[in-house]
Amino acid sequence: MLPSEDLTDQSDTDTDPEDAGVERERKRAEAGDEDLALRVVGLSQQHASRMADRLALEDLNLAVTKGEVVGVVGANGAGKSTLFKLLVGDGSPPSSGKRLGP
């Protein structure tokens, strides 16, 4: 998402502003027509444990343009480290997802 985007500008008044921003980012990642440094579409990752399988990431869409700064914030166990491991190719391959890269 670019800093100049206003998430409160919505065509559908029933949509939460955050949901509108998520939808816009998904479309931006899928289109891939910008000068992207990173593009992730539909990334999901599941971890197997002794108790049960656990979904670490579900249907992640992300587009980062060259020169853009991005922060990843979340609670412990939210999937931040898993995301970075997948992006650099460290660890098991993703459970699902399309192209990781520009």
From TrEMBL:
**Which part of the chain is the ABC transporter domain?**
57-95
Q: Does Iron count among this protein's keywords?
A: no
GO MF annotation, one: lipid transporter activity
Biased composition range(s): Acidic residues: 1-20
In residue numbers, the region (Disordered) covers: 1-34
Q: Which Gene3D superfamilies match?
A: P-loop containing nucleotide triphosphate hydrolases
Q: Which UniProt keywords apply?
A: Repeat, Transport
One short Pfam name that applies is ABC_tran
Basic and acidic residues: compositionally biased ranges: 21-31
Q: Which GO terms describe its cellular component?
A: membrane
| Cited InterPro entries | ABC_transporter-like_ATP-bd (IPR003439), ABCA (IPR026082), P-loop_NTPase (IPR027417)
Q: Which domain of life is it from?
A: Eukaryota
Q: Does the keyword RNA-binding apply?
A: no
Descriptive protein name: Energy-dependent translational throttle protein EttA-like
- Organism the protein comes from: Hyalella azteca (Amphipod)
